[in-house]
Structure formats: C-alpha cells, structure tokens
Design goal:
The protein is of the alpha+beta class and 626 residues long. 51% of the residues lie in helices and 12% in strands. The longest helix is centred in the N-terminal third of the chain and has 27 residues, at 70-96.
Length: 626
C-alpha cells in the first residue's frame, strides 16, 4: 500500500518536472543521423563523437528507431530507469533490516529521492543520469551478492560493471573501480584468474575504444578534447570545483547532506561499505579537480543514490529513524519549489553562482518542459539531406536539431568540432566549466562549406589537414592510419601560436577577416543594421592585416553602436591602443573619423577589440586616410 502510493507520487512528480536540456539535444541530433543511415555523427560527412555516453546513445537510438521521435524516446527511457532505481532502492531498504523499520526506512529513502532537487531534475533532462543512477544502485546490490558468495563469473561481472560505467559516462569508471578491486581481491583469487576476470570484464570497454579509434580516429569523445587545456591555473579550476559543491549546499542541501551523512555512516562499517565510500570520494575529487560543471547538481545524482543505498544498509532504531526523517524534511525545504511544488510556471533560480546555473529553471521557463513545450519543441521534421550549408551555433542542441542534417553546424565551444576542440580555448576572467569558447580560425567557415582546407594560418592549416584526413578520409586508407598514429601516439606539434588563440588575436566570424585594406573599403556605409550584409560579425576581436606596413594619423571606421571598442596597432608583437570608441546605444552602424594626436608608427596589423561584452560585434569598414 505504502509502496504503491510512493510509485504513484513519483510518476506524478516526474511528469510535472520532465524536461530536455540543450546539451541532451546534441545527442538527439546524432541519434537522428544514425537512425537515418548517416552514421553516428553530429555533422554528416564528418566522423566526430559529439556524445560522451555511448551506451545511452545506442539505447536512445534503438527506441527512436521504433518510435521515430527521439524526444519522446529519451523521456520514456529516463522514466523507466528512474522508476527502476526507485524500486531497487526501496526493496533493498525494506529487506535490509527488521520488517517494520525496513518499510519505514525504505519510505524515507524514496521520499529523499522525491525531494532531492538534483535527483528529480536529472531524472529526465535527456542526459544519461537516469541510466547512471540505475547502474550505480545495481552495482552496489551486485557487490553485496558478490561479498556473500564470490565466484569467477561474479568477479568478471564486477569489472564488467566498471566497463559499463565507462560506456555510460567515462568519469563514472572512478566510482566503481575501488569496489571492484577490493571485492575481487578480498576473495583471494590466484593472480592469473584475477587478471583473467579483470580482462574479461574490461572487454566491452576495450572493444568500444578500438571501434572509436577505428571509426572516429580518437579513443575518447570529442567533448573530452574540447574541455582540456583551459589554460587556467589549476587552483582556480579546483576553487571552481569546490564552488560547484557549495552551490548544491545552498540550492539543494538534502542532496549534499545525504552524500555526507551516508558516506560518514558507511565508513564505520565493513570492507564493502568503505570501498563504496572510496569510490564516491574519488569521483567527487575528480569533479572538483575538473572545476565541476555549469549545471547545478548534475554530477551529484550518482553519489546521492549510492549514499541512499548505504543508508538503507544501516539498522536504525525507531528513535533514530524519527530524527533522520525530521532532518531530511528540514534539508528538503530550500528545494521544495523545484520538486513537489514545481508546476507549469516553474522558472527556478536563474541567477548564476560562480558560473553554476539552475539549468531546468532556465529551459523550463523557455518552454522546453514536457508540460510546457512538447508540441512546439519536440517536433521532428523531415530528416533528409538537401543542399549543404554551414551555420554557426552557440546553442548547439535545439538550434542544431532544427537546422537538420543538411546544415553543417560549427560550434565555438568545440563539442562537435574536431578542429576547434584541439585549439587552445580563449582565456578570460569569466569562464564556464566544461564549456570553454574557442576562436574560429580565419577562413574556417568557408573551408567547411567548400570541403577544402583554406585556413590562413600555416600551423592551423597543417593541423586541420591531419584532422580532415582522420574524420573525412577513407576509413581504411593507410595515410589516415598514419595520421591517427601521429595525432594519438606520436608527435603532433604543429607550432600553433597558443597566445593568439587564448588572447583572441584570431577573429571569430562567419566570413574571412584577415583581409587587406582595399577589401575593407568595399564594405557598406553608415546606417546599415549591425548584422547587415557585408559587415564583419565577430565575437572576440577583429584582426585586419594591412596590405603593407604603413604609418598613418587619420582613419575612418564604422562599428555598431551597441558596444565600446578599442582600436589597436601591433608593434614588436604587442598591441597598443591608438583610439577608443564609446558606445552610442543604437543598433545601427555608426561611422567615426578619428584624427590621432601623433602618427602611428609603421604597422602591418590593426585589431578592433570590444571593451564591453553584449555578445556579437560588427565592423562595417576601416579606412586609412592618406
């Protein structure tokens, strides 16, 4: 009776809070390409793994093949795995201790799930969390069985779970590894049998890695390469990781309280419990080490459910159960508006705390929730190839999905782009964990559109040549395999000027920008819209290469009125400001004639650098007056 009521309550809450975030739709675009025969790729004709969860990807693909709609497929899978996690956890709690107290403890465990902001919000979202949670609980329960009667088959299965963790999301491997090692070694196997069981369990991981190396050309997802090499001090990254945990303490104290309480209680128990605590700790240390994430609570759901199972193994007295229930109720209060009180008008707390956001609040308020936007945003149009075009998208998921397979989407973050993922990201004071922005090299958009390597910078040109061979060449071409070896195992120092990319010297535009003065003079006159035809649209800076090194004292420039700009010239490798242009507040292009106090020394490069940040910027023309 109690269990049935909990199930009904959970389904009711799941429907009210279901949503799909933009990052998840990146996977759904790949699913559509795969189901329609274009390969497991984000952009057709370019073999790039833009998803981090192969197991989740193939499950969604299988259901989408039947249902036809990936949005409903991922919601259905999420609901099934979330419900499965709840059932397994309740049954374990009810059977672990005396019957009366077991049902009470199981009820408290399920209520904790229903009032945990992180667990509720990422029981859907389209990301792999529901599958991760289900696998984590299954792994703990299987570890208990292994401890009771260890066998070779079960030892292989323990390592098999670690492989499956990796295929669900690579960093989850850290959570399962300590328990797999401790439990199998505690059985005191012969060294040969232990190695055999480990290798047998690792077979899924090894097979996938070999496939990834063969098909994509790299052993790890493209997203991993995009997020590496931030160029920041490690302590700054770790500090951001600590802030990620602190953000959860403020928004969702029940989740963090459960993790802390469950691990502390379990650490006083047996070998199995201590190994699970070690896995949770190792996983959280990794989260801190990489700076956490921008999605509040996303990386805490698996430690949360493991901690719940650990609590369920504790034989609490009736008084202790009452204290546990009251404590849980108090910790649940700050997040109750995100769980049980959430409705169609939910908008969450969209304020940014150290680059961490209330992601469901952001998307739910923008009609991406199951109850608020299914018909509009979850519609699937015709998915057939037409004339190929190129588009730049910062919101890679929904916008990329809407573009369809004919549009090659260039992603400044680099999650789906093999070249940008391997270029140094821009180093700025304000950065988003897991989503660094990369400069788009000169002529890259045109290169993608024409299927040629037209890049201006020689070092970047050489790097792109290798990547094109790997991601676009014939799979079995010998030269491709040589390139794969060089990029993964050999020397691949192309001599990139890292400073240019990190400091924004290379422009990020939809058209080539390192141009001569004569071309800039052909651009539109004043009064055009800021994003009108012929304007140079850019994000970080616009670099103008002059036709010859020259000195000047007067110039004209047309810029949009939304932002202020610094006009700079380069001498001895350093940029020096020669003029400042203040924002006028309008959205049209404004022409400026600037007379310098003293002539500029001979220079071959002019940089236009925004000094205020309202997103994209625009230059209409730049003219040096003789």
């Amino acid at each position: 009776m109690i269990f049935g009521a909990l199930i009904v309550g959970w389904i009711f809450e799941l429907i009210r809070t279901a949503w799909i975030g933009d990052d998840a739709v990146i996977t759904l675009r790949t699913v559509m390409n795969f189901v329609h025969g274009y390969g497991p790729v984000f952009n057709v004709y370019e073999r790039v793994q833009a998803y981090t969860h192969p197991l989740w990807f193939f499950l969604i693909s299988a259901v989408t093949f039947v249902l036809g709609n990936p949005f409903y497929s991922v919601l259905l899978l999420s609901a099934a795995f979330s419900l499965g996690t709840l059932v397994l956890t309740f049954r374990h709690a009810a059977r672990s201790v005396a019957l009366g107290r077991g049902v009470a403890l199981g009820t408290l465990v399920v209520l904790a799930m229903m009032f945990s902001k992180a667990y509720v919000e990422y029981s859907t979202s389209g990301l792999e969390n529901p599958l991760s949670n289900f696998l984590a609980v299954s792994f703990v329960l299987f570890s208990i069985r292994f401890q009771e009667s260890p066998t070779f088959a079960k030892a292989s299965a323990m390592f098999g779970f670690c492989s499956v963790f990796y295929l669900c999301r690579p960093d989850l491997f850290l959570l399962g590894l300590p328990t797999a090692l401790v439990m199998t070694l505690s059985a005191k196997p012969r060294a040969r049998r232990w190695v055999a069981s480990a290798l047998l369990g690792a077979l899924p991981l090894l097979l996938w890695t070999l496939f990834s190396l063969y098909y994509y050309g790299f052993p790890f997802p493209n997203t991993a390469y995009a997020k590496l090499g931030l160029g920041l001090e490690r302590m700054d990254v770790i500090r951001q990781g600590v802030m990620y945990l602190m953000d959860s303490v403020g928004r969702d104290p029940l989740t963090m309280g459960t993790i802390v309480g469950g691990t502390l209680l379990a650490f006083r128990s047996g070998r199995l419990e201590k190994s699970l605590v070690a896995g949770v700790t190792l996983y959280l240390l990794y989260v801190v080490y990489v700076g956490g994430d921008f999605m509040s609570g996303r990386f805490l759901t698996v430690p949360f459910v493991v901690s719940l199972v650990l609590l369920a193994r504790t034989d609490f007295s009736p008084m202790q159960l009452r204290v546990l229930g009251v404590t849980g109720a108090l910790l649940a209060i700050p997040a109750v508006s995100s769980t049980w009180l959430s409705n169609q008008d939910f908008s969450g707390d969209n304020t940014r705390v150290s680059a961490v956001t209330d992601e469901r609040g952001f998307y739910y308020s923008r009609k991406k929730g199951f109850l608020t936007g299914a018909r509009k945003h979850y519609r699937v149009e015709d998915w057939s190839l037409a004339e190929r075009t190129v588009s730049k998208r910062r919101m890679l998921g929904y916008e990329g999905f809407k573009d369809g397979p004919s549009v090659h989407v260039v992603d400044p973050i680099g999650l789906s782009d093999p070249l940008l993922a391997r270029l140094p990201p821009v180093t700025t004071e304000f950065w988003t964990p897991g989503h660094p922005t990369h400069q788009i090299p000169t002529d890259y958009m045109e290169s993608v559109l024409k299927g040629e390597n037209l890049l201006y910078d020689p070092a970047t040109h050489a790097l792109y040549e290798e990547i094109r061979l790997i991601t676009r060449g014939d799979l079995n071409d010998r030269e491709r395999w040589k390139a794969i070896w060089r990029m993964n195992f050999g020397s691949h120092d192309f001599g990139l000027d890292e400073r240019r990319y990190r400091q924004g010297y290379v422009a990020s535009t939809s058209t080539p920008v390192e141009v001569g003065v004569s071309e800039m003079q052909r651009h539109v006159d004043d009064g055009s819209p800021w994003n009108g035809e012929g304007n140079r649209i850019f994000y970080f800076s616009l670099l103008i290469t002059l036709e010859r090194s020259r000195a000047f004292s007067t110039f004209e420039i047309s810029v949009d009125g939304n932002d202020s700009y610094s006009v700079q010239t380069r001498h001895n490798g350093e940029f020096v400001e020669i003029a400042a242009i203040e924002a006028s507040g309008g959205s049209e292009m404004i022409g400026h004639r600037i007379q310098l106090a003293s002539p500029v020394l001979a220079t071959d490069t002019v940089r236009i650098l925004p000094t205020t940040q309202n997103g994209w910027h625009s230059v209409g023309y730049f003219r040096i007056l003789e």
